[in-house]
Design goal:
By secondary structure, the chain is α/β, with parallel strands linked by helices. Helix content is 34%, strand content 15%. 38% of the residues are buried.
């Protein structure tokens, strides 16, 4: 399937951003979450450097609590595309049941900051989009981080007429977001047009779930803690976003194909990240995390 003029323009912009950043920075890497946006970003990065392999590492910050299907997909993609995949896990090994918001701070933010500092990476490509969530809407395409990898919204650099500023002082770094101007629908339409592989959890199937506070959580392995009286029920569900399975809610759906997902998007009223519990730790939770160094 050929790209529409709209998708072709988005693709061209993203390829330009990727090549510009790769030329400007000495030690780039890609942050890989295994989700659909990461899959599109990986596809674009591969396309930017074909026929060569991806010329920098791909980093997965592994909490140990991702869906089992995500791990299988990650390893298969790394093998298929010859990726220099780095998997990093914080040895503190907190779990999402006992440690609340501290779980994300330690297992994601601390682990990410430690690895970026250890490798002296000055550029980290990410698949965030401005339409996902309020704090991400504030991000620049080249988003500056200070020497402690903190983001300060009030000190962002202007990007007038798409001119970016890549200057860094000692120990500073940049997060680069080539998908900033894409929407959820753009992502799905591009996946269909380019035939990009995804984790099967994005498509509806019968899965064991429990309902908590009006949301459906998949019981992905024996570590899921059932509350008194809870019994997993088989329901036809899929996921709009993927993260740690005890913190990521599914939606009831019959969308088994890309065409059906795209048709369903027009009928969904809730935001894409409404099923991500880490966004709801407190008011402005995501912005607080990003200021501390979160993705």
């Amino acid at each position: 399937m050929s790209l529409s003029p709209h998708l072709a323009a988005l693709e061209a912009e993203s390829l330009h951003i990727i090549r510009e950043a790769a030329a400007e920075f000495e030690r780039p890497l890609m942050l890989y979450s295994i989700g659909k946006d990461s899959s599109v970003l990986l596809h674009l990065i591969r396309k930017a450097f074909l026929p060569a392999l991806v010329p920098f590492p791909v980093l997965h910050i592994d909490t140990g609590w991702k869906f089992q299907a995500m791990y299988a997909f990650r390893d298969a993609q790394a093998k298929k595309f010859g990726l220099d995949l780095k998997v990093v896990q914080n040895p503190k090994k907190l779990n999402p049941f006992d440690h609340g918001p501290r779980y994300t701070d330690v297992m994601k933010t601390e682990a990410l900051k430690a690895e970026l500092a250890r490798g002296k990476y000055d550029c980290a490509f990410g698949g965030a989009r401005r339409d996902e969530e309020a704090s991400r809407a504030k991000e620049r395409v080249f988003s500056h981080r200070d020497a402690f990898q903190r983001w300060e919204p009030r000190r962002q650099r202007p990007e007038l007429w798409s001119h970016v500023n890549s200057d860094l002082a000692k120990d500073e770094s940049m997060r680069v977001f080539p998908l900033s101007n894409w929407t959820e629908r753009d992502i799905w339409a591009y996946i269909r047009a380019e035939e990009i592989e995804l984790v099967p959890l994005y498509f509806a199937a019968e899965r064991p779930v429990v309902e908590r506070d009006g949301q459906l959580f998949m019981v992905d392995d024996e570590r899921f803690r059932l509350e008194p009286g809870e019994v997993p029920q088989m329901k036809k569900v899929r996921f709009r976003t993927l993260g740690c399975y005890p913190l990521t809610a599914a939606i009831e759906s019959d969308a088994e194909t890309l065409d059906e997902v795209l048709e369903e998007l027009g009928q969904l009223g809730a935001s894409e990240r409404s099923g991500r519990m880490i966004d709801k730790d407190s008011a402005a939770a995501m912005e607080r995390k990003k200021r501390q160094g979160y993705f």
